[in-house]
Amino acid sequence: MTWTTSHDLEAFLDAAGQARVANVYTPPAHRGHGYATALTASLSRSAQQAGAREVVLFTDLANPTSNAIYQRIGYRPVLDRVTLRL
Questions:
Q1: pTM higher than 0.85, yes or no?
Q2: Residue pair 9/39 in contact by the 8 Å Cβ criterion
């Protein structure tokens, strides 16, 4: 199942009941108004109401703004991951 918004924010619910929020981005001219925060929180709640056991997202550790926002709306860091292709 996939949810989308008109702001390129997406969530995917897989067969195991895990939803992944993806493509969270706010154009610079619209930042600081809480749009992405509100959309991410709403989409996360919708995924849980649709049966997601957990809702996850990936974020850049070098972006303290997004990390603070995600923690403020209830996300908690669980792991750091690196993909190495040889």
A1: no
A2: yes
